[in-house]
Amino acid sequence: MAMNLQRLTVNDSVDDVVECTLRDGGVVIEGMIGQKTLDTFWRDIAPILDAAAFLEVDDNPYLAPNRTKRILGLLDKTDAVCDIMLQPQLLGAAEAILGFNKRLAGDSEGKWPRAKPLLSLAGCAQIHPGEKAQLLHRDDMNWHPHHPADTEVSVQVFQAMSRFTAANGATMVIPGSHLWDDVRQPTIEEAIPVEMPAGSGLIYLGSLYHGGGANITRDEARTGISLTYIQGWLRQEENQFLAVSRERLEQLPRQVQKLIGYAMSPPFCGYLNTEEPYMALRLPAGDVGVSDIPAEPSYTWHRED
User: Fold this and answer.
1) 56 versus 218: which is more confidently predicted?
2) Calpha distance 305→291 (Å, rounded)
3) Which of 4, 23, 34, 85 is the most exposed place for a label (fewest CB within 10 A)?
4) Residue 131 phi/psi, 5° resolution?
């Protein structure tokens, strides 16, 4: 098992990303997003972070103690999240690892479409000097799986919006720990820091033990976006139906609307009056269930430097 995570680039294939992620529990994608997305994030979120208070969570061992700022509901606040959500290697890996179709009786040709992943969380964590290390944990604990699991329930990314270093609180991971059972417990001595520049991202499985590192610098905060995809039939960690306002929702690309829950998970999970739920988004309140499908907002993912 690898002692360090593999590092790939945006030129590597989704198959390569999936292979490394399933083998080691995670993979670093260098230059995962471009400068335009970084600039959009900082323009939109820097004022919110500046005004935010530090967490006070001494009673919750899974959250970093008292020198971290967290901004949730991030999709409602910046277009940068759309670029990260639709980044081809991340979305492709999530679809490959989480998507599946179980052939139904009478469906001899396997015509049912594959279930699509669902956005569960889009948040920002900014670790400030003096913060202690977070307790090592698995992000899939929300869905109570047994380990090792036959299938993964979640795929995440820590997207570096500033540089991640061992000194400023880079995410700590234990490569290979996604294969452990529920009895074996992690130790900090087994964890390694994932150092990467702004723009790079760590794609990892929900079953991988990890945690935010301690920030021992004097004046350097570490800022990252945490984005989680789950199997499409599961309940989201962050309630995206309430976290994203109706006004904002109607501005989002149709693909993003579907990924946050405004689409059925095949074969029939999540419909509204037997219709796809996104069909109600551009109609007056209460006027739902019609058969004409609105045109999809145009959106093509592109990485601009």
Assistant:
1) 218
2) 41
3) 4
4) -75, 140
What is the rounded distance in angstroms from the CA atom of residue 103 to the CA atom of residue 94?
20
> What is the number of other CB atoms lying within 10 angstroms of the CB of residue 80?
25
Averaged confidence pLDDT in the chain = 89
CB contact set of 285 (below 8 Å; sequence gap of 6+): none
For residue 179, pLDDT beyond 80: yes
Cis peptide bond N-terminal to 297, omega within 30: no
Task: Report the distance separating Cα 250 and Cα 223, nearest Å.
Answer: 28
Q: Give, rounded to a whole angstrom, the gap between the first and last alpha carbons of the chain.
A: 35
Q: How does DSSP assign 88-133, residue by residue?
A: HHHHHHHHHHH---PPPTT-TT--SPPPPPEEEEEEEEEEPTTPPP
- pLDDT of 289 > 50? The answer is no
**Average pLDDT over every residue of 16-30:** 98
Q: pTM for this structure?
A: 0.90
Query: In the chain, what are the domains?
Result: 7-98+113-247 (2.60.120.620)
DSSP letter for each residue of 36-49: HHHHHHHHHHHHHH
What does the alpha-carbon distance between residue 66 and residue 239 come to, in Å, rounded to a whole number?
25
Helix residue ranges per DSSP H, the chain: 14-24, 35-51, 80-85, 88-98, 240-243, 246-249, 254-259
Cβ burial 5-18 (10 Å sphere, 16+ → b, else e): bbebeeebebebbb
pLDDT tens by residue, 233-252: 999 999 999 999 999 998 99
Beta bridge partners of 160: 224
Tokens in use for 149?
A: 């699991």
- What pLDDT sits at residue 265? 87
Tell me which residue of 15, 35, 90, 55 sits closest to 303, measured CA to CA: 35
pLDDT in tens, 34-63: 999 999 999 999 999 999 998 776 556 566
